[in-house]
Amino acid sequence: MIDLVVIGAGGFGRETLDVIEAINGVHETYRVVGMVDDAPSPVFLERLTVRGYRHLGSIDEWLASGDGERFVVGVGTPAVRAAMVARIGEHATAATALIHPTASIGSQFVAGEGTVVCAHATISTNVRLGAHVHVNPAAVIGHDSTCADYVSLNPGATVSGEVEIGFRALIGAKAVILQGLRVGPDATLAASACLTKNAPSAATLVGIPARAPRSPSG
């Protein structure tokens, strides 16, 4: 059994627990030592208690305790997730990719450390995911696509073939990226948007076709 600490007691942290529990249901692999969160809400703590998981304190408290040497970050916002991994540094080792047993995974698939693939995701052939990527439930990634480190694909997002998604980009729920496009680092594609041309770095794009939001004045 591999001792594993989950960083983040919020929604995606508990969804990460679902992935771990499903993996263990097929083959006992991980023992969750507990959850780490700097400032969990009382509601989140109650939900952890109901599920039988301990709150180990803040990141600093956990690192000082030496309790559990492997971790996964279950925080949905890419920039926050990246900052947490940087804060942990070399004090602990990220888990190998966690893949829900119901996910459909094609050939020649590679995923970096700390990546989480949730239930019913569909990943085609020759897909490369970087470190600490989140693929939410029912997201789809087409053939020959790549996601750089810390990318988040929210539930139901569809990435067509030969797409490149840059560092810390966020693809919203049920958003669509058409074939062969590029999404720049730190870009955000809003929920249900359809990307029909390359997205520049740090852009926020909405609508169909996806474009920058209009200012209130017009």
Report on this structure.
The protein is globular and about 50 Å long. The model has no long low-confidence stretch (mean pLDDT 95). The strands form four sheets. It has a seven-stranded parallel beta sheet with strand order 5-8-11-14-17-20-22, with helices on one face. A six-stranded parallel beta sheet has the order 6-9-12-15-18-21, with no helix packed on it. The protein is of the alpha/beta class and 218 residues long. The protein starts with a strand and ends in a 13-residue tail after the last strand. The protein has two domains: 2-94, Rossmann fold, CATH 3.40.50.20; 96-205, UDP N-Acetylglucosamine Acyltransferase, domain 1 (3 Solenoid), CATH 2.160.10.10. The protein has four helices and 22 strands. The protein has helices at 11-26, 42-51, 59-65, 78-88; strands at 2-7, 30-36, 70-73, 93-94, 98-99, 104-105, 110-111, 116-117, 122-123, 128-129, 134-135, 140-141, 146-147, 152-153, 158-159, 164-165, 170-171, 176-177, 182-183, 188-189, 194-195, 204-205. Strand 1 (2-7), helix 1 and strand 2 form a beta-alpha-beta unit.
